[in-house]
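Structure catalogue
Derive tokens from sequence
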Amino acid sequence: MLASRICDAPISVVNLIDEHRQWFKAETGLGVRETPLDTSLCAHVILENDFVEIPDTLADARMSDNPLCLADPGLRFYAGALLKSKGGYPIGTLCVLDNRPRTLNELQREALQVLAKQVMTQLDLRAFIANEKVLRSEIDHRVKNSLQTVGAFVSLERSATDDDDTRASLGRVERQIMAVAALHDHLGLFGNEGLIELGPYLDQVIDLLNSTLPSGISVVGSFEDVEVTPREGSLLATIVNELVSNATKHSFEQSSGTIKVLGKRVALGTYRLTSSDDAAPRAAQERKVSKREGLGLKILGASVRQLGGTMTVMDTEQGYSTQLDFHLSGV
């Protein structure tokens, strides 16, 4: 610890004290993280001046009978700068100790007090970050709940309509809303400094898709896990949603089957999504693209472009197959 080097002391401690105990946030030369409060040297001085120096603890009435000072070798020298909260409350000290009586020079005393202020700055910053994380988690939780409520209303409207195109469009909207709700769920529960785990997130998106697709059509997903930003995760969920929606509309209009969506690393910095289905290809003259379907393709293309990806669509004997390559931050 820098305090030990500046003060040429074998022991230095950042200690925090409450009503029942004393523990060390950082220490050099002691080898323990906590000591009993009744033998604490700092507990004697925490309510006194902002800086306390005791050249010889055995000559001080407050510490002359302290077992830590009477031991061989005992703590014979103490100098501590108070740690104060923003409200002015003492919470501990930054102190240096030695096994021999001595004094600090003026520069060392000033340095110890400056370091104590720096310690409080760091503690305040960590508390602020912790509070921000709690607040962000609460916001994500509330946004998720709100989106789930909206998604439920869309689901009711989808169930009530008899128009196939309207039902398909509302299903697309519902899945997108629930995918964003799932994103906030991952940010609130598993957020890692603003990143999410792509594999578990897209697995959840696949479950949502299966819950809203027509009877007889199912989606199977398998995704190699990488950490991505929330923006990347949201765009990839949109892409998966649109891939499944398009396959459902184009491949399975009057039939049932399975859609497979796979994701994996294929090269350094490249993540590949592939989508395929097992439906027989429909004749070219049967593939009439409505305005709503055209909008879905535009959403898919725009999402791919925002990620700087490439997309290849193929008509195979087994059905449609789409391959997309992206350069993601965590790959």
